[in-house]
Design goal:
By secondary structure, this protein is of the alpha/beta class. It is globular, with a radius of gyration of 20 Å.
Amino acid sequence: MPSTTAPDTLTTSASILRLLLPHHRTTDATRTAPAEAFPHQLRRIDAFVRAGAPVRFTLPGFPCKSPNPAKVLGHLPDQGERLSLRFLDSLCEEVEHIYAPGARVITCSDGHVFGDLIRVPDEHIDAYADELRLLIDQLGLERLSVFDLRDILGDLPNDTKRAHVHERYAPTVDALRAEVRSDDHALALYRGITRFLVEDTAGFSGTRSALQRECRRRAYGVIQRSRAWGDLIAEHHPGAVRLSIHPQPIGAAKFGIRLLDAPDAWTTPWHSAALLRADGTWTLMPRARAAREGRLVRCDGRPSHFEQSP
């Protein structure tokens, strides 16, 4: 496809970005902003549009299920992931309506990057990512793909892969501590990850304060590895528009995206279960709460989601 002139591409690029704005995941008090308030994303989208190429998005996430059985139905993807994948594919389809080459989302499954820190077995992480690929194929979601450490480092032992990524890309803990002290967004991320680690820990034998100390320490490790994974993704997918499952400020280099309705800006399908409300809408919540609000539904013999009576 021939390149488009610059003024035309900017108009198209802004239109593409506006499709994402209703799904912006942020904790900013002002949740709505025009496309022009996101210059990083506009610039990257416009580079694809000028080249007449599909817009490529990278989304780190879909790591594995929480190890806490009070939050999730098991260690494999379920209805929460199915709905999220369909949503991402439908977003790409919407782009096609205004820009023929469309868009692609590369889901960068990061479970192996910090599996040792979140205490999830590597075999569960492999099974989760394999099932994601199978779901994408079964559901015919041709605009999506999965990228993980196996695509880069093959069959090396997982501890070796983690060490390689950490040593090559991770910032120091001291640098992160300084950032958390000086930046409100970094502090919110640190607190959010600490909270998840506390909630995801089942069967801890020590005191609550000891658990919180340990999770604060592990939170810095998770952030280190997450930053390292982000740099590795940028190296392997240069020019892609970076999405994030974490809340992001308006105008940040990463665009926070909400996959499904949830009671707060931090809930994800892999930390929760899906509930089909009586009015036909979906939401995410901890499995234990969803079990009180609806009946369990199975899909292909496995627990899938909960459903309220109409």
